[in-house]
Amino acid sequence: MVEITDVIEDTHEDPVLNDAAVQCGENIGRTIEKLTWGVVRAGTTVFYNNGTSRTDVNTPITLNKMRSVVKTLDNQKAMLFTRVLDGSPDTATRPIEAGYIAVCHTDMKPDIRNLSGFTPVAEYGRRNVVHEREFGSVEETRIVTSPDLAAIIDGGGTKAGSGTTMVSTSGTSADIYPFMVFGKEAYGCIPLRGMEAVEASIIPVGRKDKSDPLGQRGYVGWKTYFVAKVLNENWMGRLECAVTSI
Questions:
Q1: Is residue 78 domain-shared with residue 98, that is, in the same domain?
Q2: CB neighbours (10 Å) of residue 85?
Q3: DSSP 20-46
Q4: Range of 6's domain?
Q5: Which distant-in-sequence residues (6+ apart) come within 8 Å of 100 by Cβ?
Q6: pLDDT value of position 162
Q7: Nearest residue to 62 via CA among 129, 8, 115, 119
């Protein structure tokens, strides 16, 4: 909820109420994404980039571990999200394999770029991206990054135990970055009342009632009923990695 007073309305030349409404609209999407991330990140099909538990992990993402996740999804008959993207006659472009969708935090981008076979979106033969934040692809995995897909703070092993310093909030243990790979129908988002699940409210300054007889306050806010649910644990995999400190 954002409160706006008549003082702001009278002394600012910018449309503050409209700006607050836009920011609330962006917050709706980020809140729902955060709720969904919390559900899918808790899935039971998990891989560790090194070691046998989360507290061992202190190395950046590797191609072999990505292949292990994809192999498991293949064996469970998970459905691919995307079709092959054809090549093009343009110089330095490549065709892209049909594949699964992977999502991760933006901090992982430098380590992903270092993977053998990584193709950035700029080199796709056909620029048909699955999301505006699609970053690139590695073999059968199309990768989308977002700063809202939070890491697990200090969840891993010693940050320099692998010989390379990893990102660490405390300075001791590596932060853990989940790299989630999905097949079709792995999870679902369920908004109550469908497309009308989000109800936005805008009360402009100047609207007078018994609680505000001078109309000095305005409000912008929203509410929703929403839940995300894992539909098939075998069609999604979580690869837990550390991230190289740069």
A1: yes
A2: 22
A3: HHHHHHHHHHHHHHHHHHHHHTT-S-E
A4: 2-34+190-228
A5: 70, 73, 78, 80, 81, 140, 141, 142, 181, 182, 183
A6: 67
A7: 115
Residue 164 to residue 184: CA distance in whole angstroms: 36
The confidence score (pLDDT) of residue 235 equals: 95
pTM value?
0.81
Rounded to whole angstroms, what are the CA distances from 145 to 108, 110, 215? 8, 12, 44
- Looking at the fold, whether 13 and 58 belong to one and the same domain comes out as no
- Joined together, the tokens standing for residue 195 give 């497309």
The stretches in the chain having pLDDT less than 70 are 82-98, 126-127, 161-162, 193-196
pLDDT in tens, 145-163: 999 999 999 999 998 766 7
Q: In the prediction, which pLDDT does 194 show?
A: 64
pLDDT given for residue 187 in this prediction: 92
Alpha helices (H) in 61-198, listed in sequence order: 63-75, 109-113
pLDDT at residue 215, rounded to an integer: 81
In this prediction, residue 190 carries a pLDDT of 82
Give domain status of residue 246, yes or no.
Answer: no
Same-domain check for residues 163 and 56: yes
Among the listed residues 135, 121, 115, the one whose alpha carbon sits nearest the alpha carbon of residue 92: 121
Place of tokens 């894992």: 230
Residues 97 and 151 in one domain: yes
Count of structural domains, the chain: 2
d(CA 9, CA 133): 36
Asked if residue 39 is part of any domain, the answer here is no
Q: Is residue 51 located within the same domain as residue 15?
A: no
